Amino acid sequence: MKNFIFYVLVLSGLIIISCKNEDPVEPPVIAKPSFDPGKSDPEAIRVAEDMINACGGMKSWDSVNVIKYNFFGRRWHVWDKKNQMVRIENTGNDTKMILDLKTMKAKVYKDGKEWTDVDTLKKYSEIAYKQWINDSYWLVMPFKVKDGGVRLKYVKEDTTQTGIQADVIEMQFDSVGVTPQNKYHLWIGKNSGLLAQWAYFPKVADTVASIINPWDGYVKYGGVFLSSDRGTNRQFTGIKVYTDVPKLVFQNFDPIDFEKM
């Protein structure tokens, strides 16, 4: 399973991008596709909605303006959902990226300097985008189960690897996201309503999962419950939600103490 942890890269319908380069004209707002209940099992939809509500509900998730977290000790994210900006800093080197998710324009700091050449900015805008998609999906996927292009199917009742009684639903994707050929199985606790475990399948036709992870360590952040524990060596740390953060976070590469932020 090549680089799965860091490059699952599935995020159906999280955002639709305008790639216009003109400045300072704002890109047009393009409507995201809506979830089509006619393509999903009613029972799977019910279980998915119970999970969303157990995590605080979509209204609470939509009210989260900014979220900060560290992905498995590898990189920090500050994601401004409201203004569609993300800042990513690697912990193993000095690479820092600021990406405007509306325009896909990036700022890049690497090897002790800020880069301005077109090829470097293009390369790292793509890297930042993929890392943001992957890492955020590992954290907030319960709020993505009713995105446009997602199809849900009720699979069975089952227990997780730790013995939690759960309903299992399957997620597939209709030509959306970066890797629409993937699918997931989600174990949603019968008592808690929370996602307790997931399984990842690289292809829809696969019958054996490439990886199975627990979803443990739920804590309430603002109005939403998020899980930080995906098993051994797969921990989210430093999670925090904000109403707002200083605009300079997304304007320059001045050092940030993420632990104290």
What do you see in this structure?
There is one protein chain. The chain is of the alpha+beta class and 261 residues long. It has one domain: outer membrane lipoprotein receptor (LolB), chain A (Clam). Helix content is 17%, strand content 34%. The chain has 4 helices and 14 strands. Strands 6-5-4-3-2-1-14 form a 7-stranded antiparallel β-sheet, with helices on one face. A hairpin with a 4-residue loop joins strand 4 (96-100) and strand 5 (105-110). The two termini are 35 Å apart.
Keywords:
single chain, 261 residues, alpha+beta, outer membrane lipoprotein receptor (LolB), chain A, five-stranded antiparallel beta sheet, 17% helix, 34% strand, globular
**Could you give the order of the helices and strands?**
HHHEEEEEEHEEEEEEEE
The number of E-state strands comes to 14
Average of pLDDT:
88
Topology-level CATH name = outer membrane lipoprotein receptor (LolB), chain A
User: What is the helix fraction of residues, given as a range?
Assistant: 10-25%
Strand order of the largest sheet: 6-5-4-3-2-1-14
Nearest-angstrom radius of gyration?
A: 18 Å
- Which strand-content bin applies to the residues? 25-35%
Cα-to-Cα separation, first versus last residue: 35 Å
Structural class: alpha+beta
Largest sheet: 7 strands, antiparallel
| Shape label | globular
Can you count the helices?
4
- Please report the first level of CATH classification, the CATH class: Mainly Beta
Looking at the overall shape, the CATH architecture is Clam
The overall number of domains is 1
Low-confidence stretches: 1-31
